[in-house]
Design brief:
The complex is a heterodimer. Chain A is of the alpha/beta class. Chain A has 15 helices and 11 strands. In chain A, helix 6 packs across helix 7, helix 7 packs across helix 8 and helix 10 packs parallel to helix 12. In chain B, the strands form 5 sheets. Chain B has a 5-stranded mixed sheet. In chain B, strands 8-7-6-9-10 form a 5-stranded mixed sheet. The chains are: A alpha/beta, B alpha+beta.
């Protein structure tokens, strides 16, 4: 694989979000987009005149609007500008980052605004995800994004008691973070002493995947403005730099459950990305990781892949508190995907929240010590991975 | 009776028979138990059977139910009224469901008209202080008595003096005027269901004392807000549509061979000419080697189970759009003779739910009529 070569550096200069909730009857899709766009422009202290190009992303399968970018131009301000539409499933938001970064790095545009959104309330999430499965085989079996395969494998590997406790501890930790984030959708106020109760009484969805483990279905939008180094330095005191990103696909949709399991796309992405950037120990290097964690089981299991950990190291780190807000490598200070999941915006929120951490503007969920190096991931319905590295300084 | 969001738990059950939609429950046979804790709570059992309903208040926790709902009174009322999110209540554990959760999604929405809280005379009287209009009260001194008979009735005195309004229980002896009517008439008058002049002329309202004061009192108070006007005013309308799209996907010759094989009760895989990997279902190329896989080999029909997913969530079947019956099991398995990194998946025979585990051998169960489709395979079952 070739190394990404950028013609010029690209910085994030503006970030705007809506609040995330299960209902947004008070605004239509274009109005919701507009709320995020206005917030991003205000954050960057620029106007729509400064935007050269808009990259729009959501999953049309959910709301069943075939050309949403046209309708949404009422709110996005794309009228009269170049616009591209990205729709890659769960990874849509991170694909927006890769696209905007490439468009600016190439020299085609100086300032690009990426907008990710979803109004899941307006469609049927599980129905939409089911239709992402290979139509020739497996679609008949698909149950949206719900599967207990990871839970089953973790229970097999670590024993029922430890695995179930760890998944629930991860879930409660995410809720504790979400409770700090005023924009997060689900904020339950869970406590660690509820662990045993929730483990056994939360309704089962599939096997040991219970309702409490699973992400929400949210409405919301996020807009992020990218600028070339020269522009970014002019516009912004503290741009956050996009260092590198990697996108990994497999040939199959759901063919990962044989007797011999292939390397996961998460592990492959992390291994390749860190290798080409000379990062030997990701746990030491990164100050925060905003991970696309659709369920507590997945989130915890995937930390092993992304951080290149072995055996039960990820469980030990969780048990020690290494993933807490004041831990060695805080995971999802925003509360993550379990708390808020407006799908087309979700994977854009990860680098957006990571960038806010680097800037020191994350609000109540701000990590206390300096955040210089951030990692953000995206995950797609058919086991795809996007991994993004952000930096505070142009010093790599 | 304890109220939450303006309604008591018992109100919801007491109106169930009236709100029941017989046409919505044809062929349904289910018993729903309710365990509502906290003030105003209790035990109820609702039996819905083929267009009929029976609601019972019980003294002990309900038994013999298809599903039992456990919730605090506030959560139960909040979710019923749509003031609290059901998904959130379920996720947080404030609402717990024992048994077949699909009943709640499939049966209940079709079985009942929406519950709207009953406006009570007391609520209206108690809101009079808030509805008192200072701008109309200059120089007004009066005592207005209400004598409301029947269920939900009572006696109240509203005193207006020096631009203040006070409310107390009972009738003062020096009221300027006392209005007598049933509590229901009072509610209907205040919610716009009954016209004042009609009520008076038809004798539904009796006025004892100064008729002029009774007339003047109306303008001293703003209209009672039922909440319905507000919803109308904001015009937050949601448009609904249900698209049905018939889809047909070309299989191409390679997956065509797989489906054609199913007709003959055979499984065909492809073998990579470069690495030898045998892929199931067959694939046009080996993506690892980037070469065409043109050689077909027969695999199976038996397979080894690798993972089992027991599904409780009632999801739509992509082939029919109907909600699937739960629980059902999906198994991932490696077919005999296929690559060890390859898996196929299908339903498991429900009789094997309790015995299935990874490593067991399974065999296909074929449909009698086979047309080259998913449904040629009914399921897999343990190969004893």
């Amino acid at each position: 694989m070739s190394t990404h070569k950028k013609n010029r550096h690209v910085g994030i200069v503006g970030i705007g979000q809506t609040e995330y909730s299960s209902h947004k009857e008070h605004q239509n899709q274009a109005e919701m987009v507009n709320e995020a766009v206005r917030n991003a422009l205000a954050d960057a202290k620029i106007t729509l005149d400064d935007i050269d190009c808009v990259v729009h992303g959501n999953m049309e399968l959910f709301e069943m609007v075939h050309q949403p970018d046209m309708w949404h131009s009422l709110g996005s301000g794309a009228h009269g500008k170049d616009q591209f539409r990205i729709t890659t499933g769960g990874t849509t938001g991170s694909s927006l980052v890769c696209t905007a970064d490439s468009l600016v790095a190439s020299g085609m545009y100086d300032v690009v605004m990426a907008i990710g959104l979803e109004k899941l309330q307006e469609g049927h999430t599980t129905g939409g995800i089911t239709n992402m499965a290979d139509p020739l085989w497996f679609r008949h079996l698909q149950t949206g994004a719900l599967t207990a395969t990871t839970a089953t494998l973790m229970i097999e590997e670590f024993g029922e008691e430890r695995a179930k406790k760890a998944a629930m501890k991860y879930r409660i930790l995410m809720d504790k973070h979400a409770c700090l984030n005023p924009r997060a959708h689900r904020r339950f106020g869970l406590e660690y002493d509820q662990m045993d109760d929730l483990m056994n009484t939360s309704p089962r969805l599939v096997g040991e995947l219970r309702l409490i483990h699973m992400c929400s279905q949210s409405d919301g939008a996020c807009a992020v403005i990218f600028a070339s180094e020269e522009k970014a330095k002019k516009l912004c005191k503290n741009p956050v730099w996009v260092r590198d990103h990697i996108t990994v696909h497999r040939e199959e949709t759901f063919n990962n459950f044989g007797i011999e399991r292939p390397e996961t796309t998460h592990h492959y992405a992390a291994r390749k990305l860190f290798e080409r950037n000379g990062i030997k120990n990701p746990v030491e290097y990164f100050d925060v990781f905003e991970m696309y964690d659709p369920s507590a089981w997945w989130g915890l299991d995937w930390l092993r892949d992304f951080l290149l950990l072995k055996n039960d190291e990820h469980l030990k780190m969780l048990e020690r508190g290494d993933f807490d807000l004041d831990g060695k490598i805080p995971i999802n200070p925003s509360g993550g995907v379990i708390a808020s999941n407006p799908i087309g915006a979700t994977a854009l929120l990860r680098p957006a929240e990571a960038a806010l951490q680097i800037r020191g503007d994350a609000g109540p969920q701000q990590i206390k010590k300096e955040v210089r190096h951030a990692l953000a991931s995206g995950f797609g319905g058919t086991l795809w991975t996007v991994l993004i590295m952000l930096e505070k300084y142009l010093d790599w | 009776m304890a109220e939450y969001f303006g309604a008591a738990v018992a109100d919801i059950f007491n109106t169930m028979e009236r709100r029941f939609i017989p046409e919505g429950t044809k062929g349904v046979d289910t018993v729903i138990g309710y365990n509502v804790s906290g003030e105003g709570g209790g035990y109820w059992r609702v039996t819905i059977k083929d267009g009929t309903i029976k609601v019972e208040k019980l003294d002990a926790a309900p038994t013999g139910c298809t599903v039992v709902l456990n919730a605090k009174a506030e959560t139960f009322v909040g979710v019923t009224l749509g003031k609290m999110d059901a998904g959130e209540a379920l996720s947080s554990g404030n609402l717990k469901v024992d048994g077949d959760i699909t009943v709640l999604i499939t049966v209940l929405p079709k079985a009942f008209n929406k519950f709207t809280p009953i406006v009570k005379a007391r609520t209206i009287v108690e809101s009079m202080k808030e509805r008192f209009r200072l701008d109309k009260a200059e120089g007004v001194t009066m005592k207005l008595g209400y004598d409301l008979a029947g269920e939900g009735g009572g006696k109240w005195t509203i005193a207006v003096k020096d631009k203040t309004c006070t409310l107390k229980e009972g009738l003062d002896s020096d009221c300027s005027v006392v209005l007598k009517m049933t509590a229901q008439t009072f509610v209907d008058l205040n919610t716009g269901k009954l016209d004042g002049a009609t009520a008076f002329t038809s004798g539904q309202v009796k006025i004892d004392g100064d008729i002029g004061a009774a007339g003047n009192s109306a303008k001293l108070f703003a209209k009672f807000d039922t909440g319905e006007e507000k919803a109308k005013g904001e015009e937050l309308i949601s448009l609904k549509c249900l698209p049905t799209i018939n889809q047909r996907y070309a299989t191409g010759p390679v997956m065509g061979k797989w489906f054609a094989g199913l007709k003959e009760k055979k499984f065909y895989a492809t073998r990579c000419p470069s690495c030898g990997r045998v892929q199931t279902p067959p694939r046009e190329i080996c993506a690892d080697c980037r070469v065409r896989s043109e050689e077909f080999v027969e695999v199976g029909p038996n397979a080894t189970v690798t993972i089992v997913d027991l599904v409780y969530y009632a999801s739509p079947d992509p082939l029919t759009g109907k909600i699937r019956e739960t629980p059902y099991a999906a198994v991932f398995m490696v077919m005999d003779g296929a690559g060890k990194d390859q898996s196929v998946s299908h339903f498991l025979n429900p009789k094997d739910f309790s015995r299935i585990k990874p490593g067991l051998k399974v065999r296909p169960v074929w449909a009698k009529e086979r047309t080259g489709n998913y449904e040629d395979l009914l399921c897999f079952e343990i190969d004893d």
